[in-house]
Amino acid sequence: MFRGIAILSIAITCQAFLAACSMAPHYNRPEAPVAATWPTGPAYKEVMEKPADKAVADTPWQEFFVNPQLRKLIDLALANNRDLRVATLNIERSRAQYRIQRSDQFPKVDADTSANYQRLAEDFSGTGLPLNLHQYTIGLGVSSYELDLFGRVKNLSEQALQQFFASGEARRSLQISLVAEIAANYLTLAADRELLKLAKDTLMSQQASYQLIRRRYESGVSSALDLHQAQISVDTARVDVTRFTTFVAQDENGLNLVVGSTVPSSLLPGALSETLIALKDLQPGLPSDVLLSRPDILEAEALLKATHANIGAARAAFFPRITLVSSVGFGSDDLSGLFADGSSVWQFAPRISLPIFNAGSNQANLKVAEVDRDRAVAQYEKAIQTAFREVVDALALRGTINDQVAAQQSLTDAAGASYRLSQARYEEGSDSYLIVLDSQRSLYGSQQSLISFRLARLTNLVTLYKVLGGGSESNNSGQKIEKI
């Protein structure tokens, strides 16, 4: 009995004393295949002249989005968006998968109780008479515990761990994208509402002008051409009113979808001019600090580490596997004597499996693991290159957008002055109505472009927040795993 308990104790505690080696290749983070600094030149001058006082990844979205309505809208989306729920459930699934895989590193101890009733015929009993046999057993056993001498189980567990980390980074990346999408949709809705208001105001102005031209035509002062040109302006404005009415409705529908519920009217924006201070200005840091802290880059790196662990497991398949099966307990042919002296039983059955011929499957599995590692390296490097491109494109627009807005504002002011002057000259009889219409179209187009440029400036800040790895929640994978 004591010998059986000792064997079982050895089987249970061997993992604590056995330092399983790992046959996984040593991991070295690949060099970033991008420039060490951001580009310079006229497009980036304004941006690069201002140093970054705080990393974007350390800036919570509550600090970046200063508009109270937009903050409430983001809170609502984080609670209701279905894509984010799926990403959160993916984390829970990866956590459970890791627990399953990690459990293989420890012996599984089961309690077994059995009873066997059997009747032997007289020809088999050895006594010439039929024989009834009763057997009762109870005990503890370790079944199929693998001594991880070459790190196969350990590497499979590491692979599951890295996949769990990757799922966490995927959720963080999705949350940052979700926050940016909500802000962009919010600003687009504000811009379309302002464009709709501009179209309505223009329609009212054109209808008033049409009525004036009609009276002048009926009195013989204006020509039929002036009347028809005025009608064209009215109908053009009517088309724009219906078009932007559709855009506003579609924007609201899109906002409802991304938020995951119907957005209260109190959280919807007014005109874009009312949201010009909805965002905080941002400045980039160094490429290495920015890119390597982006959650999509961290996700790609975690998946790369998982492939290294998988190589270790594939290499270990070439070496012997030692599996232990043991049990201790009591047995008797009488239930009342199950725990009597001399009823103890034990079993210890080690098994060694050495691969000799498997038609090259182990070698093929290793090749697959190595190719997966090389693919993961390429995907990691491509993720960095894509991130670098996204950032520099956003920085190029950031460095020039203020000048574009200023130039468009000046153009709009000039168009407004030209329209007022042409209107006055027409009323005096100095110019034809075609000149008034041309000035009015220029002013209307300039006002629309100014709204579009203002929208571009604000959405560029949102894009910068996203591509610079905008902060959302505290992200420390080493601490998260303690909750497993």
Structure write-up:
By secondary structure, the chain is of the alpha+beta class. The protein has one domain (31-105, 148-318, 365-483): Outer membrane efflux proteins (OEP). Helix content is 62%, strand content 10%. The chain has 14 helices and 5 strands. It has helices spanning 2-17, 45-48, 61-64, 68-80, 82-103, 122-125, 152-218, 224-259, 287-291, 295-316, 361-398, 401-428, 433-467, 477-480; strands at residues 109-120, 131-147, 321-332, 344-348, 351-353. Strands 1, 2, 3, 4 and 5 form a 5-stranded antiparallel beta sheet that branches. Helix 7 (152-218) packs antiparallel against helix 13 (433-467). The two termini are 38 Å apart. Residues 474-483 have low confidence and may be disordered.
Q: How would you summarize what this structure contains?
A:
This protein has 484 residues and is α+β, with helices and mostly antiparallel strands.
Number of helices: 14
Average pLDDT confidence is: 83
**Would you identify the CATH H-level superfamily?**
Outer membrane efflux proteins (OEP)
Spans of at least 5 consecutive residues with low confidence: 474-483
Quote the beta fraction: 5-15%
What's the overall geometry? elongated
Number of domains: 1
By DSSP, the count of extended strands is 5
CATH class, named Mainly Alpha
How far apart are the termini?
38 Å
SSE series: HHHHHEHEHHHHEEEHHHH
How much helix, percentage-wise, in residues? Answer: 55-70%
The class by helix and strand makeup works out as alpha+beta
Radius of gyration: 37 Å
Main sheet record: 5 strands, antiparallel
Structural topology:
Blueprint: H1 2-17, H2 45-48, H3 61-64, H4 68-80, H5 82-103, E1 109-120, H6 122-125, E2 131-147, H7 152-218, H8 224-259, H9 287-291, H10 295-316, E3 321-332, E4 344-348, E5 351-353, H11 361-398, H12 401-428, H13 433-467, H14 477-480
Helix pairs in contact: 4-7, 5-7, 7-8, 7-10, 7-13, 8-13, 10-11, 11-13, 12-13
